[in-house]
Every structure is written in structure tokens, then in C-alpha cells.
Amino acid sequence: MAWTVSINLETHPDTLRVARRMIYATVKQEGLSEEKARELELATGEALGNARYHAYTNGVGPVTVDLTSQIEAFVVTIHNAGAPVSPPEVPTSLPHYQEAGHLPSDVQNIVRAGHSKSREAAEAQSWACWWTFR
User: Fold this and answer.
1) Would you say the pTM of this structure is higher than 0.85?
2) Does a structural domain hold residue 103?
3) What DSSP string runs through the chain?
């Protein structure tokens, strides 16, 4: 059975620690191995730390952590409403690499599409990871 639990919190270190531990405890209770539960806890902590340090200039701001159980995986999604992080620009042409066939145009298009600078993307940023448990 699929389910989702959401946690709303501030990016203060004490609350981030609680969120990481809640993720760990929940996925362990649901059958994820010790190793994979620790990996998911670590990845969640990294994403929460990124929200703290990059999205909010004073280090504190709201985030929502969603933990979803699917048939074969757990998915953690972290949403923040902080300042957008500008990714590096992807060059539209790299003559040396294109001649050698290392950077086809379809790859460039995928990379560019993943770095939307729309207003919606600037207002709400999300990060997600998933771990299989079978």
C-alpha cells in the first residue's frame, strides 16, 4: 500500500536532525535494511543542509519533507521556498567536443531543460531521491 508522510519544519539544525531521524526510523520500521536506511538518512540530511545553506541567506527558512512509500521504493522529496540556486550555464556549442561526438545536441537539450529559470521554479525548489527496498 502506498502512503506519504509530510513534515513541515524550519531549517534549524536541531529540527533537521529530528527530520533525518524520523525518516530513518520510519523506513527501518517499514523494512528497509540498516545500510539503506542510513544511506537515505544521509542523503536526506545532505539535501536539508543544502536548503539551509543555499536557499536561505540567514540559514533558516521553511521546508517540507515528504516521505512516500511505493511498492518497491521509498521516495524522499524536500521542498523549500528560498532563493533559487543558479546552475551553471550549459554552452550551446562546444566545437571540439561536438566534432568528437562527445556531446550530442539531445544531451544538451536535456541538461538545459533540467535547469528551468521560470518563476515557478524560483518560488519552489524540490529535491527527490529514492531507495528500493527489495
Assistant:
1) no
2) no
3) --EEEEEEEE--HHHHHHHHHHHHHHHHHTT--HHHHHHHHHHHHHHHHHIIIII-TTS--EEEEEEEE-SSEEEEEEEE-SPPPPPPPPPS--HHHHHHTSS-HHHHHHHHHTS---HHHHH-EEEEEEEE--
